[in-house]
């Protein structure tokens, strides 16, 4: 294939995804040479393609000794950029995350699919995009 590993992932996964949901807790991920992490690169490419992205940050407590300071600093910088762009939501528990995720799609009695052109068969090709989340 001859391409960067992340570029291969982007081609194989992102092109068929209708919506991207990213979940962060204490880590941003590994740099790709193009972006601060593979997850960030996926988010930016997805948004650049005009597709919706939902970016969640956990505010759940964490044991301080378990945090990589460099990763956390990178995550904080990315979070600040996302806040500036109005792209994020916070959650503090699994129940809170579930409520916010589903209410974002079905608020006010809206029962249609979350993205225009939603295709459940194509959606099966999408993989979860998360880095350092409580669900990894």
CA distance, first residue to last residue: 29 Å
Highest CATH level, the class:
Alpha Beta
CATH topology heading? FAD/NAD(P)-binding domain
Strands, total number: 4
Largest sheet: 4 strands, parallel
> C-alpha Rg, in Å?
15 Å
Helix content: 25-40%
Keywords:
136 residues, alpha/beta, FAD/NAD(P)-binding domain, four-stranded parallel sheet, 5 helices, 13% strand, globular
Short description:
With 136 residues, the protein is an alpha/beta fold.
Task: Walk me through what this model shows.
- It is a single chain.
- With 136 residues, the protein is of the alpha/beta class.
- It has a single domain (5-131), classed as FAD/NAD(P)-binding domain (3-Layer(bba) Sandwich), CATH 3.50.50.
- 40% of the residues lie in helices and 13% in strands.
- The protein is built from five helices and four strands; from the N terminus they run H-E-H-E-H-E-H-H-E.
- It has helices spanning 5-13, 38-48, 69-85, 94-106, 120-123; strands at 20-24, 53-58, 88-91, 129-131.
- Strands 3-2-1-4 form a four-stranded parallel β-sheet, with helices on both faces.
- It is globular, with a radius of gyration of 15 Å.
- Mean pLDDT is 80; it is low at 110-136.
SSE layout:
Blueprint: H1 5-13, E1 20-24, H2 38-48, E2 53-58, H3 69-85, E3 88-91, H4 94-106, H5 120-123, E4 129-131
Parallel strand pairs: 1-2, 1-4, 2-3
